[in-house]
């Protein structure tokens, strides 16, 4: 049921007569499910800011662990979620993964509605929210099979951006919803998503499709794991997506902790994730036209400049510079997310003589890079935690570490994909880099 055996998107006649309509339909419902996954995944980033207002007095370190745990679980789930698409089919797995989001929502309702809920249960609830983080890899792997090579960049960019927007939606809507009526009602933060989760689950089951050609062959995954480009791209994705999701989790808390007089601006923290999400398809679009590696290198240079801006803002206590620099970091991370993901199918197309094997290897790398990139978000929040708990109790050590890392990413991108000697040895890589 809903399995498609014949799928040839690279043939113009097939694409125009049949493929485009089916691909777009699956993309729409994939975005819906993935968007809710992100919304639930980052839910604790807003809830944690208000826990003290409802009687849960956790330390700064404990609060950051509530941000780190969902990030960590989401990162760990991205690899098995990628393999779930070939195993169960895109339709069934999207249905299952969307439905699972009801679990963390129900747990959060119980946690914040029960006086004296222990800290360990909040940690368990945060871990359950990590289920939403795995959705990204399965969704991206699934959609990558539906689109022809020349249209993958924009399609994957839209799919990812639609999912990433869940971060912004949560950080915009939840602060408003929890203040409806008198006082703070954190249970509303979870209850608001439940009807939409049920809707997304039903839509996935009744309207999506599964592709037979998405079935794995073990050899393709082994080749992907043994290919050095898998790990290079995973490293670069730490710098782009790791920055985006790590900053998304931390930004509301950083405003409250670092600029107490401006804590009312927490309500505008959603702007970072919103603009970064919208910038993601732009990165894919630019990569389609001028080359993924060029766009990626430019974004890392920009991320370094933005980080310097945040360092200066912390040292001078300039909130306008702090907020503006972080918005720039979100935009650049979003563009880099799109360009790095566009590089993956292009690189593996040059590495394999078999188009079908190349697509399967690329789909595997999407999961691996997605998992490692999300783990980068864990590292971002760990660095923030240690920096704020250290002797300086400042963000400067953390930001300095990020600056050094972005420098390494610039060098890595240039070395592997933009050096002339690389093109001389492997001219096919010019497709990905130029």
Automatic annotation (TrEMBL):
Pfam families from the UniProt entry: MFS_1
Keyword Metal-binding tagged: no
Keyword Zinc part of the UniProt annotation: no
Main subcellular localisation: membrane
Family per record: Belongs to the major facilitator superfamily. Nitrate/nitrite porter (TC 2.A.1.8) family.
Organism for this UniProt entry: Lentzea waywayandensis
Membrane topology: Multi-pass membrane protein
Compartments it resides in: Membrane
Name by which UniProt lists this protein: MFS transporter, NNP family, nitrate/nitrite transporter
Gene Ontology molecular functions: nitrate transmembrane transporter activity
Record's signal peptide: none
């Amino acid at each position: 049921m809903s399995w498609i055996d014949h799928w040839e998107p690279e043939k113009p006649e097939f694409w125009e007569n049949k493929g485009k309509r089916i691909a777009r339909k699956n993309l729409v419902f994939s975005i819906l499910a993935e968007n809710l996954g992100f919304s639930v995944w980052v839910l604790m980033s807003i809830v944690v800011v208000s826990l003290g207002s409802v009687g849960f007095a956790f330390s700064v370190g404990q609060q950051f662990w509530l941000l780190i745990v969902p990030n960590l679980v989401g990162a760990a789930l991205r690899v098995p979620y990628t393999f779930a698409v070939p195993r169960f089919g895109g339709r069934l797995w999207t249905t299952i993964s969307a439905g699972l989001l009801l679990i963390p929502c129900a747990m959060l309702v119980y946690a914040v509605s029960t006086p004296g809920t222990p800290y360990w249960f909040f940690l368990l609830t945060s871990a359950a929210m990590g289920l939403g983080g795995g959705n990204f890899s399965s969704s991206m792997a699934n959609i990558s099979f539906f689109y022809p090579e020349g249209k993958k960049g924009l399609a994957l960019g839209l799919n990812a951006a639609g999912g990433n927007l869940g971060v912004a939606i949560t950080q915009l809507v939840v602060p408003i919803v929890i203040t409806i009526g008198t006082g703070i009602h954190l249970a509303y933060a979870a209850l608001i998503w439940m009807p939409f989760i049920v809707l997304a689950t039903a839509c996935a089951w009744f309207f999506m499709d599964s592709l037979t050609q998405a079935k794995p062959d073990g050899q393709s995954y082994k080749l992907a794991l043994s290919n050095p480009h898998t790990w290079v791209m995973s490293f670069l994705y730490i710098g782009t997506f790791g920055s985006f999701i790590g900053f998304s989790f931390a930004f509301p808390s950083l405003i409250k902790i670092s600029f107490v007089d401006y804590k009312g601006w927490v309500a505008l923290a959603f702007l970072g994730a919103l603009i970064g999400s919208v910038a993601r398809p732009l990165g894919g679009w630019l990569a389609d036209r001028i080359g993924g590696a060029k766009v990626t290198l430019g974004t890392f240079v920009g991320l370094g400049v933005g980080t310097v801006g945040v360092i200066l803002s912390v040292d001078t206590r300039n909130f306008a510079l702090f907020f503006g620099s972080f918005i720039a970091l979100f935009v650049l991370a979003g563009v880099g997310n799109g360009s790095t993901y566009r590089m993956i199918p292009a690189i593996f197309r040059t590495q394999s003589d078999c188009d079908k094997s190349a697509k399967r290897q690329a789909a595997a790398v999407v999961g691996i890079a997605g998992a490692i990139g999300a783990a980068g978000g864990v590292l971002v929040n760990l660095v923030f935690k240690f920096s704020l708990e250290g002797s300086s109790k400042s963000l400067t050590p953390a930001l300095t570490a990020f600056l050094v890392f972005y420098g390494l990413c610039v060098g890595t991108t240039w070395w592997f994909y933009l050096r002339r000697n690389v093109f001389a040895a492997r001219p096919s890589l010019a497709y990905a880099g130029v």
